[in-house]
Amino acid sequence: MGILHDRIAIITGAGGGLGAAHARVFAAEGACVVVNDINEAAARKVVDEIESAGGRAVVNTSDITSYQDSENAVRQALDTWGDLHIVLNNAGINRDRMFASMTEAEWDAIMAVHLKGHFCISSHAVHYWRDQAKAGNPVNARILNTTSGAGLQGSIGQSNYAAAKAGIAALTLNQAAELRRYGITANAVAPAARTGMTTAVQAMAERMAPPEDGSFDYWAPENVSPLLAWLASTEADHITGRVFEAEGGKISIADGWRSTEGVDKRDRWNANEIGSAIDALLEKEVPAQKIYGT
Asked: Which CATH number goes with the domain that contains 102?
C-alpha cells in the first residue's frame, strides 16, 4: 500500500514533463489522479499508462487560467471519487525574452498560466475544504505549488517567468499562514528536471540528456516526484509554508528573505547620511545567490 492510498489529487499540466511524472508516481503510490491538461490527447495517454499499471486516473481539460472553467476540475474529482485531498499546481509555459524587448502579451501569458493558474483551482478546492471544516468534518488537505530557482534568484531573459514564480513562492507562504486552521497545508517545490520547457534550448537539452551508459539519470523528472508525493501524504501534515528545491537525488529547503540587524538612527535620516548607513549594512551583508545567467 502506497503512502497516497485513496488520496485524491488534481495535478495540472499533467500531460507531459514533470506533471506526467508526478501523475504516474502519485498513482503508483495509491492516489486517484485527475490528470489536467489542455491537451486532451496528452492527458489521455498519461491516464492510459496509469490504468495499464493498475492505477486510477481520469482526464480533465479545464483551463486553469479561467476561474469558472477551473472549478470543473474540482467538481470532477468530487463526482468521480467523492472527495479531494490534494491540488498540485504544476502547469507552466515559457515566453523568454530580455526585459527591454518583452511584449505585454508575453508578460500576460506567463502571469495567466503561472500566477493566476496557481490561484484558480486552489481557490475552488479551498472553498470545498473550508466548508468541510466548518461542518465539523476532518480535513487533511494539501496545496502543492511549483516555483522555480528563477523566482527565488532571478534569471536573465526570464523577467516575466521569474516574477511569476517569485509570486508563487510568496503566495505559498500566505496560503500556509491563512489556511492551516482549516486543515490545509501549503508548500512549494522548485524543481530542476528535463522537460519540454527546460530542453527547448539546445545547450540545455545536451546538458540534461539521459546518460547513455545506463547510470543514474540525474535530470529525469521522476526524480522530483517522490518529494511531492510525500508532501501530499498524511505523513507531511506538520510541514507547511516551506519552499523546497529538488533535482536529481538532492532535496533542499530554500531560505527566504530575512531582515538584517539594520542601522537605526532613532530619528529621521537626512538624505546625505544614507550613503554611510548603506555602507554599514553592506559590510554585514550575506551575499545572495547569483542570478541565473550571470
From this structure: 3.40.50.720
Answer whether residue 118 is part of any domain.
yes
Does residue 49 fall inside a structural domain?
A: yes
Cα dihedral: 17, 22, 27, 32 (round 10) = -100
pTM above 0.90, yes or no: yes
Among all residues, which ones are annotated catalytic? 148, 161, 165
Separation of alpha carbons 92 and 111, rounded Å: 10
Q: 20: domain range?
A: 8-253
Other Cβ atoms closer than 10 A to 80 = 16
The predicted-structure confidence for 71-122, as pLDDT tens digits, reads as follows 999 999 999 999 999 999 999 999 999 999 999 999 999 999 999 999 999 9
Q: How many domains does the chain have?
A: 1
| Grid cell 539546445 in the structure block, residue | 202
289 in any annotated domain: no
Instruction: Please check whether residue 268 lies inside any domain of the structure.
Output: no
Kindly report the three-state secondary structure assignment for every residue of 146-192.
ECCHHHHHCECCEHHHHHHHHHHHHHHHHHHHHHHHHCEEEEEEEEE
